[in-house]
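Help wanted!
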Amino acid sequence: MLSPVEVTLIKALEKGKYSVDEAAKKAKMNRDAVLKASYLLQEKGYAEVTVEVTRKYFLTDEGKRYLKEGLPEERLTELLEKGIEDIKELQQRMGKEEFGIALGWLKKKGAVEVKGGKVKLVKKPEFEERNWLKSVEKGEELDDSKLKTLLRRKLVDYEEEKRIFIVIKDVPEAELGELIADLTPEIIRSGEWRNREFLKYDVSVPARDIFVAKLHPYERIIRECRMIFLDMGFTEIKGNYVQSAFWNFDALFQPQDHPAREMQDTFYLDRCVDLKEEEEVSFVKRVKETHENGWITGSTGWGGRWDINKARQLVLRTHTTAITIHYLALNPEPPIKAFCIDRVYRRETIDATHLPEFDQLEGVVLDKNVGFRQLLGMLKEFFAKMGFEDVRFRPGYFPYTEPSVEPEVYVDELGWVELGGAGVFRKEVTEPLGIKGRVLAWGLGIGRLAMLKLGMKDLRRLYLPDLGWLREVPMIKR
Amino acid sequence: MPVVTLYWDELEELVGVDRETILSKLPMIGCDIERVSEEHVDVEFFPNRPDLYSVEGVARALRGFLGIETGYKKYEVKQANWKIIVDGSVRDVRPRICGCVVRGLEITDEVIRSLMEAQEDLHWTIGRNRRKMAIGVHDLSVLEFPLRYTTVDSSFSFVPLDFEEEMTIKEILEKHPKGKAYSYILEGCTRYPIILDSNGGVVSLPPIINANRTRLTEKTTDVFIDVTGFDKNVDKAMNILATMLADRGGTVEGVEVVYGDHVEVTPDLTPSKMSVDRSEVEALLGFELSDGEVISALEKMRYGVIVRDSYFEVLVPPYRADIMHPWDIIEDVAIGYGYDRIKPEYPKTATIGRAHNWNEVRELIKELMLGLGYLEVITFTLTNERYQYDYMRRNRPEAWKYYTPVMHPLTEEHTIVRTDILPKLLEVLSVNTHHPLPQRIFEVGDVVVGMKNRLRLSACSTHARANFAEVRSVIQAVMRELDLNWEVDESDDEAFIEGRRARIIVEGEDVGVFGEVHPEVLENFGIPTPVVGFEIDLSEVFDVGILL
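Answered by r_m:
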């Protein structure tokens, strides 16, 4: 059976199209109830709800003025008929701008000729536009080409009005009372359904769209990466966004005058830390010596003086390596496998592929008997788990790794694409922090993964979500 | 990183192979190919290899890598009578200078182009935008030796490059394009570094500009190069330029630099020596290599190698500015051997994986919120005081103690790190008003309070009938699922409507707030429909683990 509202509505109407107000009047129902009933009828194939956008035209201020005073070309014609033909004088009388408009239109109508600073009327033009303006003002219908002309001249404008219509496609007439529409608890309890037939719905009619509550696709990728790391025996680590330059740069042997450390590229905070904790003091001393002269690492160091005040400055971390290196410094005994997937900051102007903050993934392996070859093995396995079966390696450069490598993965349609960077932490990094063994490290931007996996071209939409996109992007991309 | 433009005709001629071979091998010595055209290839080299910022340097490396000419290349420095006398007054402004004469060059447009490009790239990289090191190249024929490197005051005048009239140093720093660009380096100086020849003619005002009279012309065959600065980077740049011009067929002649207490002859193109342990090579690379393989790899990378009992004695070319540690050489063993020839091996390191509490809590909360029908969103953590507090009708809290401002923000939108997520969600709703209702969204993530991260959950719902009962139901469900004993009390949070806002209290502590968002807040954000929402500080009710 149709629900009471549906019955009321459909009984009041015949096949045909009704506005909501008309339907409400006929069925003596309120608008909300009419709409609700219409949508229910639509689901059952008896009705269709359509939204029509109609334009309501009105005169602009300019249009109103012209309607009153006449169009500029009319006024110019009047002046010409009075024998005033000198351009300068005409400009003076009408104003330069309006004279220009008027002359343009008269030329277009082939009504005038301009010669030697004078305007000559060749034939008397017709001025229909004023009648059109009148029609618009009265709300009369006007054909599209005329409206177009008026719109182009900015004499009229419009507002869009959305109107909902109900089209009754089929009225189940006599059967209304006999067939079961909604299966109600009463019908089940009474067993009444045994004696009655069910109303057949049109199954091809689409119902209202509903949207799934689901993970953000980007978070889904991060979750996938976490699972891979955890599967491979890595410990997850996490750190604060605010870090000292010491952990973000100095501990990683980044020279203090390195361009990446400049205000230009890094978000500094107007505060410093003490670096007073006992542990850190010894780190600081050895890092200082390593920067200045290589300490016992076998390096020449950067030379010059290392300034502790620069190390004390606070920054929004520029990479998750600030966290991994700190973790290794506190856990220097091999074997260690650790990973971090988290937000990092760069002082960059926003565009489709650059954001001031983004998420980075990083993994480290600390062990005694591992080297560059094992790093390549780890990368190959990791990328294979990420779904990139073909990986190749090119030399790379990162200030805190040696050797360094840029992995590339093969992606259908794109070919070989660079995906992150990797290397073995330099001795100048590990030794001052007392890390025992070699550290294999690699990292990549999750945004880049998202671009490859979701086919995204603009990273901005990840962080200022368009709900339309989020609702439509499928949980699984095939 | 500098992008170097290499013209095919020159590169092919200098290397001696065709462009296909070059293109296929170039990436394997360490660079990113940016663009390939008919005339040239644009290559981004890494900042640790300034010796590759010229076609000459690249050709030298490629010839080695391709096996056309391998091993250490010896560069001669001819003795001559060139002299620079250094005045003690430069010590405080720009203490170090190297000089070099290169004769018998055919200064073609290509040579000038390559020299200028290398100069600019060196200025930018090892020169740190001329601060640490700056280069001047001059026509030798107009200079009268010995030169003097000294200081003068700002009223001293000469005709700077590209100008026709004399300008004082003060005017140059204020008006000359190069003066304006680099005056910051000499800021606060009362005396300015200057190179003069024995007639008192100006050679250069380092690190700003040369004199116009020393500029190179088509007739130039002999050049004088000065490099000034503070430390060894001066010598590194000098060596790169000298070897580059030597590769162009020039004869390098030494210049005696006379300091108050000692004399040096520059450039010094003798190789430095570094010992590399045999065991260290294998340990770092993780596989065995024969001596022959190590030698062949290093020679391809243009090193000289002498085998000693437990180590290799390696001659490092004078143009290599990046070799600080034996590992730098071992990397070149790997590159010379070929990254593509190394067989990856999965490390045997056995460990057990462990997730961090922070993210375990996030996963749990996500399951909960998805179950309640809320869509997950993520937003930036950078925001501003207006959105976070003013729009929310909340008082701005104390900077540092509570919120974290960033220095030199790029836009007014991003001046602080968020302390609350709810305003970010309202921002999301405000840009999505054209999408169908209801809209229910949540984010579980980091905020920064007192410069430490905290884990927060915030969610909101908007549709024509969103009301307090709806959000209270959700809070009840959340607290029930999290098995928390909780109470509520009236809140005074102005972001919500009075009498329709509540504090969530767990064990006597405020852990969150919920309610109907105040219409003025909705107006501020431009949201036309009622919104209910909440925010809970999960750090208060969960063990979220240790943060570094």
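OP: Thanks! One thing I noticed: DSSP finds 16 helices and 28 strands in chain B.
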